[in-house]
Design a protein that fits this description.
alpha+beta; Beta-lactamase; five-stranded mixed sheet; 22 helices
Amino acid sequence: MNYATTIQTTGQIALPAWRSRVLYVLLLAGLVALQTRAVYLQGINDNFLKQKGDARYGRVVEIHAHRGMITDRHGEPLAVSTPVDAVWASPADVIVSASQISKLAQILGLNAAEVKNKLSDTSREFVYLKRQLPPEQTSRVVKLDIPGISLQREYRRYYPGGEVTSHLIGFTDVDDNGQEGIELELQAKLGGKAGSQRVIKDRRGFIVEDAGSLRAPKAGGDVALSIDSKIQSVAFREIRQAVEKQKARSGSVVVLDARTGEVLALANWPSYNPNNREKPGVSVLRNHAVTDQFEPGSTMKPFTVATALEAGKIKPGTVINTANGVFSLNGRTIHDTHPEPSLTVAQIIQKSSNIGTAKIALSLPPQTLWNSLSESGFGAPTGSEFPGEAAGKLRDYKTWRPIEQATMSYGNGISVNLLQLARAYTVFANNGELKPITLLKQETPVAGVKVFSDATAQEVRDMMERVVKPGGTAPLAQITGYRVAGKTGTAHKNENGKYIDRYVASFVGMAPASNPRLIVAVMINEPGGRDYYGGLVAAPVFGTVMGSALRMLGVPNDAPLDNVMQPTPADMIGEEV
């Protein structure tokens, strides 16, 4: 039967059989191709689908590491990290109404327009709305139930001591990285290492599942400082009161353990509160005791005398012609405020004679004096490793002229920082041994470097005891029940190579003088009142801080309790400037 006959007979069009077979084969091939592709993508090469799935529903979130704690020597916390939350958003996933934006902005303390602007940038996959919020605040954000907005755990640094320890401890930024002080110096140990975590979010942008940790965070290590919090509080209180009373520009105080070189207290005023996240001015941030240099004035005289004693040029009873207060050298004149025709070496320290000290220095070869000062730590960092520490300035002896050698002997033409000056006095407290400085708690004392003999150190210490007695420059440094040895300093400030009528007043001393346990150094920068001598404005701070610290440590008395003799105006003399 042909094709036409089939149409006439049945009234239907009959298709060739081969067409159905071809269609069947094509459908079967397509099905096999789809199955093969599915097997390939899901079983053999599944990276593509994983990437697409991760992009739509997964996210890698950073896990902040817990920062190590900073404590004082007794374990009292000085810096701790408390858990807080960051509010972040994935703008592409955010579904929010105008009223919700307004409520969210109010909770976060932000402007509604600012929040709206951040959420409208759909090109960004991650944007912080507000960081370091307390849990009670972020719980209100959660209640808004806004798709695409999530929380991330982080930490905020808290400083229990506030402004009392701020210059020493420093602070961290919003990412918990150290920016100043110990926080900056020991960032590698304190900071730890952040981790990461993969999370899965639903179609509304909410995180619904923890898909596992990619890298676990490593917590930072704790640090125990050498600081004694109680002594630090006393030092801070006294330097603040002194600066305010004297209407000074600033002031600093350092307390050292004379035997170990550990810093037990280091305080400055003005100060700032590191718990206030608004960054203070640069001038307030400066740790003046470590970063600022000044001419030490007469606090250098014991080192000049010690060098000459060691060289055999003088003895404590050697009489020096002090020329009735006027001594000319190479066209320059050196003055003594209290003219005397002659003084013994011990009296030169007691009354702080510039002329007597200059003549002693000129009896020495320049290299001998330079070696002694250099070995005492001048002109070099203390080794505290505090950020921004000033090294001070001690010029090469080969450049000295006689007048420069003379003036340097009483603290002009040389610069120091207060911590450096306090450390130098360890040579007199430790029988001639210069101790290394540390801000970290030491389990065992570290050996120092021998600079002077035992006999020389003891002789200078005996001379410095006369400084705090009537007729010396610092009777106000006396302490009930303890013998004190120390030295005052008052120096003109040098600006642009010229000395001006503004002063730095200082006092450095040790107690008990019979067997020194502590060294306290005080510096008052530009006292604005009538008094500017170190014995009048710095020595009283020393007396209070040293006396309190000795009693806190339970150091035995080495003098009767009636040893303090109240000075009369006639007993008070200012050191030479």
